[in-house]
Amino acid sequence: xxxxxxxxxxxxxxxxxxxxxxxxxxxxxxxxxxxxxxxxxxxxxxxxxxxxxxxxxxxxxxxxxxxxxxxxxxxxxxxxxxxxxxxxxxxxxxxxxxxxxxxxxxxxxxxxxxxxxxxxxxxxxxxxxxxxxxxxxxxxxxxxxxxxxxxxxxxxxxxxxxxxxxxxxxxxxxxxxxxxxxxxxxxxxxxxxxxxxxxxxxxxxxxxxxxxxxxxxxxxxxxxxxxxxxxxxxxxxxxxxxxxxxxxxxxxxxxxxxxxxxxxxxxxxxxxxxxxxxxxxxxxxxxxxxxxx
Length: 293
Known about the structure:
- This protein has helices spanning 25-36, 48-58, 72-81, 108-124, 159-183, 209-221, 225-228, 230-237, 271-285, and strands spanning 16-20, 40-45, 62-66, 85-90, 128-135, 189-193, 246-251, 256-261.
- The chain is α/β, with parallel strands linked by helices.
- The protein has a single domain (11-282), classed as Rossmann fold (3-Layer(aba) Sandwich), CATH 3.40.50.720.
- Helix 4 links the parallel strand 4 and strand 5 (128-135).
- Helix 4 packs across helix 9 (271-285).
- The longest helix has 25 residues, at 159-183.
């Protein structure tokens, strides 16, 4: 596994993937590798124009459909358009943006990164044949879930703390989803991944000095988006991965390198918080999961 690359992806012919945020960065790299391996890929993008540019390079096995994770009506419309999918990759996200609200009134980072994907996964769950891969980040380490103020309505807003909360929520969701799938006797698996420190355009949209600092640092310490997409691709395609596992880069304290199974912090394994966050997410989104039990 230490030198696994996209060239090692097993034949994906006959399989359908949904990749959110596939119009650029990690999502575009993942979509490219999956199409090359024979898969049919639905590029789920808010920016349909950029998505079409990517799809045009990939050919007939790539298609674009609009998905705005910051708008639950858009999430429902997208989910209704999907008949069946083998693998859902919850990849799209925003990072360290100023305080903003989604269409439904959620803080933008928790609303897009977690609640939008929570709703999407719940709406698609009965159509998923194989697995769900949720993208988190090493920045989950700075996150704390505030169940009393998840949407930053009463606390003083901190853009990086809000990002850390959303990435911790991604892991709590991925692990809790696996527990519920197992309890229901489902063969569907839930996995998580993170890209390490990869150079993507996500870093240019913080609207703060952080974007300038990362732009200067990237040529020196960041790995490419192609390398950053490998943990996601490993989790999404390797046949014998275990549900509930987490994948990231193997080298330099998880910042770069080839994919390997990694660990996450104690907060991400707090079953009580995971259950409470799940219940809160269902209330906020209006999406109740049906595990067929």
